[in-house]
Amino acid sequence: MFAADVHLRPDAPERTERFFRWLEAEAPRSRVTYLLGDLFDLWVGSGQMRDPFYEPIVERLAACVRAGATIEFVHGNRDFLIGRTFERATGIRVHEDPIVAPYDGGETVLTHGDLLCAADRSYQRTRRVLRSRPVRGLGAMLPLGVVRAIGARLRRYSDRAVSEKSREILEPPDDAVIAMSEAGRRRTILCGHLHHAMRRTYQRGGVRCELIVLGDWGRGASYVEWIDGRYRLFVADGGHEGEGADWTEVTESSGEGV
To answer: What pTM, to 2 d.p., does this model score?
Structure first.
């Protein structure tokens, strides 16, 4: 099972419940559940686990693992500071982005998705700086309140910058998708970040790769499952707020990212 871009935050409690209804029902029956980044709308360090909103979420995740679920997490652009303290507290294994899935013959890349937005050069420069060892070290030294304020400012700047960029800049270029597929060695890339569920096939010079994008949970919900040797992408119908969401499968689609 796979999900991405849940963006849990204090002002969206219904999203938290929607996500955990799905996770607590589906994760125990899955061999492994992957969360492909931006589980949290903002994560500034392990001190956040003591926050009144986040502490019960951490415990609820840990309860899923204690109940038998195997959960793996890949860093997103909003929560790349999740580290070993979170891993020990929840039992969720944390990975740097990207990883190669240890099944399907190793032919699937799991990534948050922002690395694919290669045309957005200013973002990629900022990404490298923020994830550098000196910046991470400074963040670990500063008081939680200071880091949270800096993170919130960066988040607002990011939202504004994205709103001003063209679709062409934000969409993954064909070359970036083919490159991440390692020239066809990996036949599938599974990601989030683009906030729109879709399936798209890329072909270049005899290389063929499918990109499967998970939608964000702010607009609804989506998940992917690997079953019987193939991927199936599902999005929640309009009744996603209720207990019994209806899910619709998404097949091949050109899609529109944001």
So the answer is: 0.88
Is the pLDDT score of 184 beyond 80? no
Does residue 107 have a pLDDT over 80?
A: yes
What is each CA distance from 130 to 25, 80, 126, 161, in whole angstroms? 36, 9, 6, 16
- In what order do the strands lie in the sheet containing 188-191? 99-100, 108-110, 188-191, 207-213, 198-204
Query: Does residue 147 fall inside a structural domain?
Result: yes
What 8-state DSSP symbol labels residue 178? H
Query: Which SS3 state, helix, strand or coil, does residue 5 take?
Result: coil
Q: How much of the chain exceeds pLDDT 70, in percent? A: 87
Count of domains forming the chain: 1
Range 165-177 burial, b when 16+ CB lie within 10 A, else e: eeeeebbbbeebb
Nearest Cα to 250, choosing from 234, 237, 239? 234
CATH of the domain at 187: 3.60.21
